[in-house]
Amino acid sequence: MAEAKQLSGAGLRGQVAGETALCTVGKSGAGLTYRGYDIADLAEKAQFEEIAYLLLRGKLPNRQELDAYTKKLQSLRGLPAALKTVLEQIPKDAHPMDVMRTGCSMLGNLETEEDFSEQDDKIDRMLAVFPSIITYWYRFAHEGVRIETESDVDSIGGHFLELLHGKKPSELHERVMNVSLILYAEHEFNASTFTARVCASTLSDIHSCVTGAIGSLRGPLHGGANEAAMALIQKFKTPEEAEEGLMGMLERKEKIMGFGHAIYKESDPRNAIIKQWSKKLAEEVGDTVLYPVSERCEAVMWREKKLFCNADFFHASAYHFMGIPTELFTPIFVMSRVSGWTAHVKEQRENNRIIRPSADYTGPADAKWVPIEERP
Ligand SMILES: CC(=O)SCCNC(=O)CCNC(=O)[C@H](O)C(C)(C)COP(=O)(O)OP(=O)(O)OC[C@H]1O[C@@H](n2cnc3c(N)ncnc32)[C@H](O)[C@@H]1OP(=O)(O)O
Ligand SMILES: O=C([O-])CC(=O)C(=O)O
């Protein structure tokens, strides 16, 4: 009993809450695999669309299947007029994660999943249309333009960059987006995925599962950390300033966003990968501040606390170097993780039992009813 109390108070850490064939996190040392494939291999060799197919259809596609899948996703990028109308009502100072949440929910009103047999089509639609939703709103709210959301760029990452910047992305930028979407696609029973699975376990619809997951991802302890990491590194003009600043924050026991992890203990395997791309982008833009500052933060956190960068930390500088506004960082995470969330929803539906754990009661016992006139 005492042990259960301690565990539930500690974020359910270490408790097995179900089964999955989708992903292992930290199972052999610091590793991460999607359906048995190592993340380093996938990030080097795959297309994000291939990874979405792997997660959602259970196997790597052959050439024909990948081409057909990419084409299908390309054909699903358009926004319904009623969704555009809703997006145009959302104020400029709204957080883009709230826009994603509303966009997803509205899509659920317009293109409701009536039956689970429709799940694959609904999922593909979300994968294809999320970049359109966020960039349509962003450019309308900030520039007053109504963008065309179709584009002939094949990849989801390239599509997002083209809509955001109004021009075709460079090969390098499209490649980095592809890697980033692969790295963020799936991560076992993280908070947002667990949210989606809990929702799915009530036999709710796919848009409700994803809308809930977006809300869960938004927080700075989870997906929101990539934006918080950007805010941190932008405070410093030199590595020396960063070191001094971090030492002060650690002394004041402040959380440093983009560091630490609930499962990994020594490193997050996604960090080395995105860090290398951030370095390439820093060279491309001639950066002499943000990348060295980020590296110094990494060194200080390891030296002082044995805390390592998680997937979010070097994503901040990488996205920044590609001209992506900070407030769009976490929505990119959504564009990717929707593949993992919905693969988990499918898995949950295949072998469902409502998720309903127990709690240790810590409130008063035998409370006696007091009429309202007699209450202090
Ligand atoms: C893609 C992702 O979602 S990755 C996670 C993104 N989130 C962040 O980057 C936010 C910053 N990091 C954190 O808040 C945490 O490390 C989490 C939420 C990721 C994991 O939380 P937990 O599993 O509870 O952390 P853990 O038990 O390992 O913490 C151990 C100790 O290190 C401290 N610690 C952990 N991370 C940090 C950090 N980033 N900065 C400062 N101290 C930290 C904790 O406060 C705790 O100290 P204490 O023992 O004195 O209380
Ligand atoms: O696994 C976690 O707790 C958080 C994380 O890194 C992710 O969701 O990618």
TrEMBL record:
It catalyses: oxaloacetate + acetyl-CoA + H2O = citrate + CoA + H(+); propanoyl-CoA + oxaloacetate + H2O = (2S,3S)-2-methylcitrate + CoA + H(+). The active site is at residues 261, 312. Pathway: Carbohydrate metabolism; tricarboxylic acid cycle; isocitrate from oxaloacetate: step 1/2; Organic acid metabolism; propanoate degradation. CDD domains: Ec2MCS_like (cd06108). GO terms for biological process: carbohydrate metabolic process; propionate metabolic process, methylcitrate cycle; tricarboxylic acid cycle. Keywords: Acyltransferase, Transferase, Tricarboxylic acid cycle. InterPro entries: 2-MeCitrate/Citrate_synth_II, Citrate_synth-like_lrg_a-sub, Citrate_synth-like_sm_a-sub, Citrate_synthase, Citrate_synthase_AS, Citrate_synthase_bac-typ, Citrate_synthase_sf. GO terms for cellular component: cytoplasm. Pfam families: Citrate_synt. GO terms for molecular function: 2-methylcitrate synthase activity; citrate synthase activity. SUPFAM superfamilies: Citrate synthase. Belongs to the citrate synthase family. This is Citrate synthase. The lineage of its organism: Bacteria, Pseudomonadati, Pseudomonadota, Gammaproteobacteria, Pseudomonadales.
